[in-house]
């Protein structure tokens, strides 16, 4: 049975099955159909005459949401749910239409109240209608203006004395898109939450004709008051530009002379009044973009510039690292394993003016502390062999490699030259060449790589005139002494070291 057939059948029986009681009425049926892409929304408006009193138009809205997959090609709805339309611009204007329940909570005259004090829940009756327009100044913040109509009356279930007060409200509020503010758009998908707060101006008029001759009742007398309001509005997007919106708002008036039943407010209430509203309705996003403005993700150029700048600063910080603490940043350091405290040139290389393979400061230190200053040459040839041997075996002289390579870096040539000089000056000495690798890759691969590195250094020394029988190679495999996930630290263990054998 279609929605229209259901409503027509109900009208013929003079009963409205959507409410918990039966009403006799004359009716005029208006059927509107809004079609938004796949979304069909029928709205039924019925004018009701209850008993002998004609009420204002009561909106009986039956929102039947049906996605017509039978007549159109099926679509991947999960994709559309996350299709937040990544755009440089977005629709800033939104129109909202809602209907719901307004309750004046205080003040009331004795014997009057908005719902039965002996019942936990109030009656379900639509007595509030609102239309508004919203403009977003930024993706997170905006403002809205809305016009509302509230009809405060007693219902059949609340056991109150009869009252009727009509109120019209104009609200101006700030709006926050909470999903964007807290960066939850992708997690929430089709859902969203708006928070709003601001001021309202209200015009209230008592309308109960039965009490118009009562001197304490201000029949057709109008007053204006000012108040503040705050509320939350959950949304769910049902098509590209339409969403269903709910709202709960609380309003406090500052200068309310009337009670909600239309009599004079008691001075002890300090001319204050409070009310709450619950409503449900539709929003439509105005603009050229095909995605509702509350869901479109905006590419903010400034944010991208900040991210790019942050990356550049991070890169500069990495470049300014100084692994060997010689005062020359790594990106300029041609020899990033220089001995601590030894003078280096502008490229981070230890100063060796006489090109004998020993840094000048070490020569000076050994000359001053171990031998006569005039015999530095003899120190290098053998007088301080133990000191040089210790430097070699403790790893101060190492050959370095790029990741996955078995040929030394160009800067490591000086290290090989130092070893060559030592071997030439100590012809009775043999050398063990130890290859190392970092932890990237398999054990088998790294064992082979460390062996190839040692073989390469041996070959260079043999090509320089050193007898191969004096050179023994050893593959040490992976060096696990540094953090595996540190690229800079791994550079320090991709090397060849030496052990002296007499």
Radius of gyration: 43 Å
The main pleated sheet reads as: 8 strands, antiparallel, barrel
The low-confidence parts are 1-87
* Beta strands, count: 17
Describe the structure.
By secondary structure, the chain is α+β, with helices and mostly antiparallel strands. The chain contains eleven helices and 17 strands. It has an eight-stranded antiparallel barrel with strand order 6-7-8-9-10-11-12-13. Mean pLDDT is 77; it is low at 1-87.
List the helices and strands and how they pair.
Blueprint lengths: L2 H10 L16 E8 L2 E8 L2 E2 L2 E2 L11 E2 L9 H5 L11 E14 L21 E9 L4 E13 L10 E14 H4 L3 H4 L2 E16 L16 E15 L4 E12 L19 E14 L14 H19 L40 H10 L6 H8 L1 H9 L5 E2 L12 H13 L4 E8 L5 H21 L7 E8 L8 H5 L3 E7 L1
Parallel strand pairs: 15-16
Antiparallel strand pairs: 1-2, 2-5, 3-4, 6-7, 6-13, 7-8, 8-9, 9-10, 10-11, 11-12, 12-13, 14-17, 15-17
In short:
This protein is of the alpha+beta class. Helices cover 22% and strands 31% of the residues. The relative contact order is 0.08.
Features:
11 helices, 31% strand, alpha+beta, single chain, 17 strands, eight-stranded antiparallel beta barrel, four-stranded mixed sheet, 502 residues
């Amino acid at each position: 049975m279609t929605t229209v057939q259901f409503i027509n059948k109900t009208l013929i029986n003079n009963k409205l099955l959507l409410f918990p009681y039966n009403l006799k009425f004359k009716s005029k049926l208006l059927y509107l159909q809004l079609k938004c892409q796949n979304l069909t929304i029928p709205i039924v408006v019925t004018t009701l005459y209850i008993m002998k009193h004609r009420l204002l138009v009561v909106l009986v809205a039956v929102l039947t949401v049906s996605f017509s997959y039978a007549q159109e090609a099926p679509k991947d709805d999960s994709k559309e749910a996350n299709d937040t339309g990544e755009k440089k611009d977005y629709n800033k204007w939104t129109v909202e239409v809602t209907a719901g329940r307004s309750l004046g909570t205080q003040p009331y005259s004795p014997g009057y109240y908005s719902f039965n004090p002996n019942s936990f829940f109030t009656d379900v009756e639509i007595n509030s209608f609102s239309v508004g327009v919203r403009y977003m100044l930024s993706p997170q913040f905006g403002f809205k203006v809305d016009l509302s109509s509230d009809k405060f009356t007693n219902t059949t279930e609340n056991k109150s004395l009869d009252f009727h007060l009509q109120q019209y409200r104009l609200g101006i509020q700030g709006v926050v898109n909470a999903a964007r503010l807290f960066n939850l758009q992708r997690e929430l998908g089709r859902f969203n939450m708006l928070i709003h707060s601001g001021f309202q101006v209200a015009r209230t008029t008592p309308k109960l004709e039965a009490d118009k001759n009562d001197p304490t009742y201000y029949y057709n007398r109008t007053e204006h008051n000012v108040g503040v309001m705050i509320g939350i509005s959950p949304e769910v997007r049902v098509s590209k530009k339409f969403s269903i919106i709910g709202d709960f708002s609380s309003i406090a008036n500052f200068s309310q002379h009337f009670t909600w039943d239309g009599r004079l407010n008691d001075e002890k209430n300090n001319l204050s009044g409070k009310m709450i509203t619950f409503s449900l309705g539709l929003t439509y996003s105005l603009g050229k973009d095909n995605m509702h403005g509350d869901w479109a993700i905006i590419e903010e150029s400034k944010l991208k510039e900040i991210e790019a700048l942050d990356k550049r600063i991070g890169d500069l910080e990495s470049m300014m690292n100084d692994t060997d603490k010689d005062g020359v940043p790594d990106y300029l350091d041609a020899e990033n394993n220089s001995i601590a405290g030894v003078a280096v040139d502008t490229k981070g290389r230890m100063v060796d003016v006489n090109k004998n393979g020993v840094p000048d400061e070490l020569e000076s230190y050994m000359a001053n502390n171990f031998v006569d200053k005039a015999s530095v040459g003899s120190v290098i040839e053998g007088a301080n062999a133990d000191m040089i041997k210790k430097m070699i075996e403790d790893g101060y002289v190492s050959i370095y490699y790029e990741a996955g390579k078995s040929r030394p870096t160009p800067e490591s040539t000086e290290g090989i030259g130092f070893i060559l000089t030592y071997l030439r000056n100590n012809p009775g000495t043999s050398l063990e060449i130890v290859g190392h690798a970092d932890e990237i890759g398999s054990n088998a691969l790294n064992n082979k790589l460390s062996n190839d590195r040692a073989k390469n250094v041996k070959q260079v020394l043999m090509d320089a005139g050193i007898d191969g029988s004096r050179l023994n190679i050893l593959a040490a495999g992976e060096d696990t002494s540094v953090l595996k996930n540190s690229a800079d630290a791994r550079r320090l263990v991709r090397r060849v070291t030496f052990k002296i054998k007499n």
